[in-house]
Write a structure and sequence with these properties.
The protein has one helix at about 50-55; strands at about 5, 25-30, 30-35, 60-65. Strand 2 (about 25-30) and strand 3 (about 30-35) form a beta hairpin. By secondary structure, the chain is mainly beta. The protein is globular.
């Protein structure tokens, strides 16, 4: 499942954007969003999702349970 940013909690600090190894985070309408097709949950890059680690507001970058979990290529 890719991560998503809860727009109502995002402070637009931009801490997450430069840390995403997949360039999946961008600003949209004053808040940041994660493009699900690009998010790999940082699998293969880091032990924990960098957006979650960088976000200063708890529970703002969360797993999007409405989408399928990322599958690393075999």
């Amino acid at each position: 499942m890719p991560f998503k940013i809860i727009a109502s909690q995002c402070t637009s600090c931009s801490a997450c954007e430069p840390l995403c190894p997949n360039v999946a985070i961008s600003e949209k309408a004053g808040s940041f969003v994660i493009e699900p097709a690009k998010c790999t949950e940082c699998i293969g890059y880091f032990d924990e999702p960098q957006c979650v680690a960088a976000c200063p507001v708890d529970n703002t970058c969360v797993v999007d349970t409405s989408l399928a979990r990322y599958q690393a290529p075999a």
